[in-house]
Amino acid sequence: MLLAGALALAGCQTAPYRKLTAQQVETLRQQGFHLTGLGWELDLSEKVLFGFDDDAIPPERQSNLRRIGQALLGAGIDHVRLDGHTDDAGSTDYNLKLSLRRAQAIAGVLVSAGFARDDIEVRALGMSRPVADNHTPEGRAQNRRVAIIVTVD
After folding, report:
1. I want to staple 7 with a disulfide (CB 3.0 to 4.6 A). Which of 52, 96, 112, 148 is the partner?
2. What is the pTM of this model?
3. Residues 6+ apart with CB under 8 A from 89
């Protein structure tokens, strides 16, 4: 279990909590974010979903992520948190590693959009926080994701 704890914290930087301006909130809304208990989170329809046992981001999705990253930076939003997730197939340790690779892949795209790597918090959550039923193919597909979150106070 020590490995699980280390992976959950791998690549983490403490993202500062801050208040957002009206312009920043509008930019978040325009880019498909909505306010949740975790902060401003990219809507499920815009979330980065992955294939089974996959951490590759299709080129067209990379372009969209760069656009979102540049819009956030243009509004002065320069810190994000990336929560990597998996479905429940496979072992806990394997899924933690896979969710970390997924979040790191998204981080790489955001760095290419202009984010500083130190301003991206990466968390590996594995299969611990499903958003859909893992007993259906559709549910498992929705759980294979990386959530992009802008934290606020």
Report:
1. 96
2. 0.86
3. 52, 53, 140
Residue pointed to by tokens 């909505």: 34
Q: What is the crossing angle of helices 2-9 and 92-112, to 10°?
A: 10
Report residue 49: phi and psi, to 5°. Answer: -105, 150
CA proximity to 43, closest of 110, 134, 142, 126: 142
Angle between helices 22-30 and 59-74 (to 10 degrees): 170
Torsion, CA 53, CA 11, CA 79, CA 96, rounded to 10: 30
Sequence-distant contacts of 89-95: CB under 8 A, at least 24 apart: 89/52, 89/53, 89/140, 90/53, 90/127, 92/4, 92/126, 92/127, 93/3, 93/4, 93/7, 95/126, 95/127
pLDDT in tens, 100-117: 999 999 999 999 999 999
